[in-house]
Write a structure and sequence with these properties.
eight-stranded parallel sheet; TIM Barrel; 12% strand; alpha/beta
């Protein structure tokens, strides 16, 4: 029986950390890891969308993961997203992730070409085969990947005993229940996890059965999501919903910026905590001068929401 308790909680998506030259900052990765440990999160999701993975080389992604593992020393559940848009590089990252001792590897389906389900399954299983002693998380994000996780594809993947979870970022929260039901049928009541993906639906996702969440805005305001998770476990839905609304208003405000969301979040972290994670990698849009007021307002909204916990 798999132990899914390590996946039950708030798992921020780890932001890309760059130095002044736009190269991977090992020091930044370690500082950010320590910061998140101190905030009481359950784990980190390394090398995903928030980590700007599609704009990084394989060696850069390895360097980030190594820094996180060296700093966390078992204090966090670490899920390494290893997908690249070709099987060979994905397999290499999966092999590397297992070698440094991650809790699980994860992958989106290949993007751009719409592949048949059997080809996607082969792609995922090739990664899993390269990391045979590591659990595997399917990442469903159809609005960006262009491919949805179907029940037939999930059934095929559940033939692989290392598949223990789905990170679900589709918009219908009903998908969480469907994936959870299929996983329980294959793995037993406590043998399969589903993560809520859309941050704006954290409470809804937890209410319908998600074991925890992985999200791109958690790291800029972890206190809010950790508190929401606690309240949901205490069945205090009304209080959790109040915080969810505050978090959503902050997200909407950050999304008003001309610069990319991750650029906004990194700037807020720098101002609030003195941790410089650098900018974002092109072609992601850097902060614009006109974004100053948006960043300042979002920062104040976060400070206010935290003070009210």
């Amino acid at each position: 029986m798999k132990d899914i308790t390590k996946y039950q909680g708030v798992i921020p998506a780890f932001y890309a950390c760059y130095d002044e030259n736009g190269e991977i900052s090992v020091e930044g990765c370690k500082k950010f890891t320590r910061h998140l440990i101190n905030k009481g999160v359950k784990g980190v999701y390394v090398g995903g969308s928030s980590g700007e993975c599609i704009y990084q080389h394989v060696d850069e992604r390895k360097k980030v993961l190594e820094a996180v593992m060296e700093e966390s020393q078992g204090a966090l559940t670490v899920i390494a997203h290893v997908a690249c848009n070709n099987t060979a590089d994905s397999v290499e990252l999966a092999r590397h992730a297992e070698s440094v001792g991650v809790d699980a590897i994860a992958s989106i389906p290949p993007i751009y070409f719409h592949l048949p389900e059997h080809a996607i399954a082969e792609y995922w299983n090739a990664m899993s085969k390269a990391a045979p002693n590591t659990e595997f998380v399917i990442y469903n994000i159809p609005q960006l990947a262009g491919t949805s996780l179907t029940m037939s594809l999930l059934a095929e993947m559940l033939k692989n005993p290392n598949v223990v979870a789905v990170k679900n970022s589709s918009m219908p929260t009903q998908d969480i229940q469907m994936f959870k039901d299929a996983g329980i049928k294959a793995r037993g009541e406590n043998g399969f996890a589903v993560f809520n993906g859309p941050d704006e639906q954290f409470v809804a996702g937890r209410a319908i059965g998600a074991d925890g969440g992985i999200g791109g805005t958690y790291a800029v305001m972890p206190e809010l999501f950790v508190k929401m998770d606690q309240l949901m476990r205490e069945n205090n839905f009304a209080a959790a919903l109040d915080i969810q609304y505050k978090a959503n208003r902050i997200i909407y405000k950050m999304c008003e910026a001309k610069g990319n969301l991750y650029a906004v979040e990194k700037e807020i972290i720098k101002r609030m905590h003195g941790i410089d994670l650098g900018g974002v990698r092109l072609p992601l849009a850097p902060l614009a001068e006109s974004d100053e007021s948006i960043v300042a307002e979002a920062e104040q909204m976060i400070r206010q929401a935290i003070s009210e916990l």
